[in-house]
Amino acid sequence: MDPKTPPVDDVLTVPDPVAAAAAAMLPDGLVAAGADGIVTSVNPRAAQMLRQPADAFVGLDIREALPLETRNGESWWAMTDPWNGLRTRTGHREKLLQLPSGLELLVTARYLRSGRAGPLSAVLVSLRDAEGRRRAELDHAALISTIAHELRSPLTGVKGFTSTLRRRWSQFTEEQRLTMLEAIDADADRLTRLITDLLDVSRIDAGRLRIHEVPLTTRDILTRHVERHVNAGQDAQDFTVTVAAGAEEIYADPDRLDQVLSNLLENAVRHKAACVTLEAAPWEGPTGPGVMLSVSDDGTGIPSEQRRAVFSRFWHGPSGGGTGLGLYIVRGVVEAHGGWAEIDDAPGGGAVVRAFFPGEMV
């Protein structure tokens, strides 16, 4: 050991007023007990989480004050036993435990010892509210449930048509076979989109969505997306495309921009009454100039109190269709480009979704 480095015991020795002030400032709960297991201090956050005043715990055995259990109902203290267990053990990493009341906590423990493998001198237990993790788990469970539900329909169609064709191929006319194959192809495309959405949501959540920006011709891209809807049966007169001077070129990842426009157009078509308008205009954003893309419809619009939730996962409009992931992905993709997305009232009624893409990065 470096002679200038104080021993562990000296490092951990802090004047009581300083230690108390530091513990009170911690965002997590902290419960401290001496070598005998008697609780010596409980910081305000721990008292808040345990829903009792700190004085109610001081003087109790920590195993009585915090009867922590695993999800199987086993005593965590009996399993870890800092008093009679291995002396080389200095604590435990964060673990999800619960109290007999059912309150779930994320618990981390530190065992202070006198020297290496020496006798126990104190036990520190850090408590963190598990509500955030529980919400994240519920969100993931809801995502899996939603995707599983959406996958079931096209899979059923693919399975039904392929099974029927395989067993009764000779009984169908060429036209009937072609119709079934087209249905299979459409269901396969839908499955691909759903899987892509699931992967993109995971990448957005993890902050690992990759973007490769290149200069793109704005009008060509907008027109191509309109043509897709026209080819799918929409009336060409239902769409209006406007590209203002200065917005002829946009810097974006071509695949990701297609994803944004596809989701915005599908959303607008679902809610339109007569017309969908696609606009591109130059815009001065907080990080410099860029292009603002706007997709608006003349439907019923989005109530102002719901707009905050529009870009969240599983949001469904009045129609209730889709997975509820489209606008969440739109925001994630646009923000990955360094831009932002918003929703507002369209000038002629209905709703308009705007997505700002910054200009070329120098």
From TrEMBL:
Its EC number is 2.7.13.3. One of its GO terms (molecular function) is phosphorelay sensor kinase activity. It is found in: Cell membrane. GO terms for cellular component: plasma membrane. It comes from the Bacteria. InterPro entries: HATPase_C_sf, HATPase_dom, His_kinase_dom, HisK_dim/P_dom, HisK_dim/P_sf, PAS-like_dom_sf, Sensor_HK_Regulatory, Sig_transdc_His_kin-like_C. Keywords: Kinase, Phosphoprotein, Transferase, Two-component regulatory system. It catalyses: ATP + protein L-histidine = ADP + protein N-phospho-L-histidine. CDD domains: HATPase, HisKA. The keyword Transferase applies. Residues 146-361 form the Histidine kinase domain. This is histidine kinase. It comes from Knoellia flava. The lineage of its organism: Bacteria, Bacillati, Actinomycetota, Actinomycetes, Micrococcales.
